[in-house]
Amino acid sequence: MKALKLSTLAVFTIATMANTKIPANQDTEPVEKNCGITNTSFKAGEKVGFIVYYTAAKIINVAAGAGSFTTTLEKLNGKQVYHVEGEGHTLPSYEWAYKAKDIYETYMDAETLLPLKFVRNINEGDYKKYQNVSFNRSANTAISKEGVFKVPECVHDVVSAVFWARNIDFNLLKPNTDKVPVKIFLDNEIHTLYVRYLGKETITTKYGKFKTIKIKPSTIKGTIFKDDDKMTVWISDDANRVPVRVESPIIVGKVRIDMTSFENLRSPMTALVKKN
Q: For residues 256, 257, 258 and 260, what is the CA-based torsion angle, rounded to 10 degrees?
């Protein structure tokens, strides 16, 4: 059961889903050629909630976890930053099988949306891990308790990439054709991930019916994901680019993450066709 890591999945999946969908310059050139991006999709005060469903063997289908992303505007070393905290936990009804509560945080430069600090605090059964990474943008290094690591100029963490990616104009991409890379710093390593734009689709969740943008990102090999290119993500087809649904096979079974609530969005949720 430990292999499931459902609360980590809730935060990490949503992060990873968009980490790879960062076509800063829409011609699939390396992201390093265009680090900064103008934020038009979110604002301080935004909060998005989600729930995690786990299925296996065609007979198990349970709500196993929940969580949220919250955004505030703060100061870090004299610089204005967006502080985003992603929290995921198993539901009380599922704690008999596995109990976990994980927190992922990023502090992004408010001008470029590049991370200056990343914090990960994992509590999963008997497994605990705390990581605090500072990014020195002038030296292109990432500093953790394990040492100083050279990183690419435009590298992201798993949370900052989500919010950076939400500002991409997917209308400029070709469905089923464009594949765009992004570099992520995680566990003291650089990972190059990719996303393929699949087009637009209207989907129905328990919250309601949404117009969405459909993408298929790769994931980091060696984690809980079964394959590195089987995840599918749907984000709201409006100015907010809010994750609406994520689906992916994992080592044991399959997971679905659905958006359940949103507050203080920057723009009206015009992607919502009908609320249930």
A: 140
Dig out the tokens for 42 from the structure: 């979110």
Q: Model pTM? A: 0.84
3-state secondary structure of 246: strand
Asked whether 85 and 162 are in contact (CB, 8 A), the reply is no
Q: What is the number of structural domains in the chain?
A: 1
Contacts of 109 (CB under 8 A, 6+ apart): 79, 80, 81, 115, 116, 137
Looking at the DSSP assignment, which residues form a beta bridge with residue 129? 122
Radius of gyration of the chain (CA): 17
pLDDT per residue over 38-75, tens digit each?
899 999 999 999 999 988 877 777 888 999 999 999 99
Q: Is 31 helix (H, G, I), strand (E, B) or coil?
A: helix
Structural domain for 24, as ranges: 6-275
Neighbours of 171 (CB within 10 A): 10
Indicate whether 1 belongs to any domain.
Answer: no
Note whether residue 257 is domain-resident.
yes
Give the model confidence (pLDDT) of 202-216 as tens digits.
Answer: 999 999 999 999 988
Asked if the structure places residue 28 within a domain, the reply is: yes
Residue 220 located in a structural domain:
yes
